[in-house]
Amino acid sequence: MSAVEKDTRGALKYITEETVSAALKNIRQGKVYNLGVVVDEESPAWGPRKNVVHIEQMHFGEGDHVQLVHDDSVQLHVGIGTHIDTLSHIGLNGEFYGGHTSEELFDKGGVKAMGTETVSNIVAPCVILDMAKYLKTDIVPAGTVFTKSDIEKAATEADVAIARGSVVLLHTGWIEHGWGANSNKELFNSGEPGIGLEASKYLADSGVVLVAADTWGVEVIPAEPGTTLPFPVHNNLLKESGVLLGEVFDTRKLVQDGVTQGTISIQIVAITGAVQSRVNPQVFT
């Protein structure tokens, strides 16, 4: 079977014209929450990632009629700030989601399947689980594992249901370390709270299309004891389940206003062969 014949959509197949129509009908108040963060050269970045902006000034015209034009170029690792991971982002032992192999996918000029150009824009119902409130703290400590039971109990406390075709947003408060008044990017990058393998399987089995958090990796870092992979949740959601990941989603205003559900819109920056996309998600209530 060739790469083009293999599944490339994953859980996005649960988004249909009917589910989009239903999600849009749930917008009642007309309030909009932007979940994207502002990035610059000092923003927290994992590993070798960096963000550099270069502005060029050009002159057109003569004498008293000279127009100045500023043009920009950005050297940006896409995985800085608010972004999503596509199904071509992480594989295991040379195999990616849908049975795609590394040989079928990899090219230095861009992956040959499951790039951002194949990811449809997302409009879906979303639930916001305030895990900091659930654990009675402002910022959940790094290394805190969210289990299936934690997710179920937090959803019950918020009076929301995790349904097929929905997006789950997790608020931990960890984003304060990276984009807060007293930010510390070294601390932000050192670890994080997040879902464990059991919770990730539960969410995938529930039919969610995307799991996002206000952290840089969604999953608990360091990984749970006994795991053999550095990023087991990435492997389970992306490779095994076809569920997209959203990272550094700024959920602070949502939880401040007590929002527990809404309709989310995520517009993809479609670049052929890219494996991640910068996004500015918006939640409508």
Molecular structure report:
With 285 residues, the chain is of the alpha/beta class. 21% of the residues lie in helices and 22% in strands. The chain is built from nine helices and 13 strands. It has a nine-stranded mixed sheet with strand order 1-13-11-5-7-9-10-4-12. Strands 2-3 form a two-stranded antiparallel ribbon. Helix 4 packs across helix 7. The radius of gyration is 20 Å and the shape is globular. The protein starts with 16 loop residues before the first helix and ends with a strand.
In a nutshell, what does this entry contain?
This protein is α/β, with parallel strands linked by helices. The chain is 21% helix and 22% strand. It has a 9-stranded mixed beta sheet with strand order 1-13-11-5-7-9-10-4-12.
* Tally of DSSP helical segments: 9
On the 0-100 scale, what is the average pLDDT? 95
Low confidence ranges = none
Number of strands: 13
Helix- and strand-based class? alpha/beta
Helix content: 10-25%
How do the SSEs run, as a string of H and E?
HEEEEHEHEHEHHEHEHEHEEE
Rg (CA only) = 20 Å
Shape assignment = globular
N- and C-termini, Cα separation: 44 Å
For the largest beta sheet, what order do the strands appear in spatially? Answer: 1-13-11-5-7-9-10-4-12
What percent strand?
15-25%
Largest beta-sheet characterization: 9 strands, mixed
Keywords:
21% helix, alpha/beta, nine-stranded mixed beta sheet, 9 helices, 285 residues, two-stranded antiparallel ribbon
